[in-house]
Amino acid sequence: MALTTCKFSLIARFLYPILPDEVLKRMDGEIIYWAEVVDGDEFMFYLLNEATYAVVCGAI
């Protein structure tokens, strides 16, 4: 369990929440936005770049 907790605490450093109607620019220059809101209590995460995406998906 400690390894899993450590892995996800490291991953959390590369995840940022996006709230509806926010527009953010990733470190690799890609623009991320979330225009469609289904429920008022939603949020999602974006990853800093494609390499981080690969690491996070592999860990999850």
Please describe what this structure looks like.
This protein has helices at 2-12, 50-59, and strands at residues 15-18, 23-25, 31-33, 44-47. By secondary structure, it is α+β, with helices and mostly antiparallel strands. The protein has one domain (2-59). It has a two-stranded antiparallel ribbon. The chain has a two-stranded antiparallel ribbon with strand order 2-3. It is flat. 2% of the residues are buried. Mean pLDDT is 59; it is low at 1-11.
Summary, kept brief:
With 60 residues, this protein is an alpha+beta fold. It has one domain (2-59).
Report the portion of residues in β strands: 15-25%
Gross morphology: flat
Fraction in helix? 25-40%
Number of helical regions: 2
What structural class do you assign from the helix and strand content?
alpha+beta
What's the rounded overall pLDDT mean? 59
Oligomerization: single chain
How many β-strands, per DSSP?
A: 4
The largest beta-sheet arranges its strands as 1-4
Distance between the termini: 14 Å
The low-confidence parts are: 1-11
As a whole number of angstroms, the C-alpha radius of gyration is 13 Å
* Largest sheet descriptor: 2 strands, antiparallel
SSE arrangement, N to C: HEEEEH
